[in-house]
Fold this protein.
Amino acid sequence: MLNICGLFYGKSAIGLGESLNIPATTKDLLLKYSKETEDYINSNRVEYKSYCDTYYKGRQSNSSMHEFLKKMHKEGSFLGDITTADDLIDRFYGTFPNIYSYLSQCADQAVKEFKIVTPDVFQRIRKFAYTEDQGELNAIKRAAMNFPIQGSSASMTKYAICLMKKYIEEYNLQDRLKFALPIHDEIIYLCREDFAEEGLKILTEKMEEAAEVVLNNKLLKAEGKISLVWEK
């Protein structure tokens, strides 16, 4: 699930494949399983010719073969037991179509207005330089799909730190809880050992309170743990 969450931060099939050590796309699948690819084509000449007649006016090329094998893989008849990163992405967005729809809307908005705004109460704004270059427009789309979630996450983290600071000062807990640093969407506090359990409870509550304020809902739940050493 942690790797799938990377999709929200602009992770591509290539990045996901590298992190999971699986083929990223059908192209990678064909390169890794070249003998199986050749055997499949030889065993399915009739189906391949029919595909080319339908979609490529009878022409057979590397492109037509790739698309044919991609289709067969999606249907499970060609190396159906091997999952690519593309497969995982398709399944994820197929299961949660509203997520894909929202992120696509963000991408479309960004290339029209050259800015994107987070959906939270703070409404962070990221502006992009105007361009007509397709490569740069694609980069803007990827950034726009990243920003609403990453920006809201940053707002929640910072707001939770403010809530903790206020709570510590209000209840004179300076000798028991001390802010250390944030790491992405984590917050690390140094805590006196005999106060560790209570400190974790307070931090978890404040993180969930921050999420409720920033996103105006109570759906997000925080998790935490106590450790005696610094961890990666």
About this structure: The chain has three domains: 2-95, 97-145, 154-215. Strands lie at 115-117, 125-127, 177-183, 186-191. The chain has ten helices and four strands.
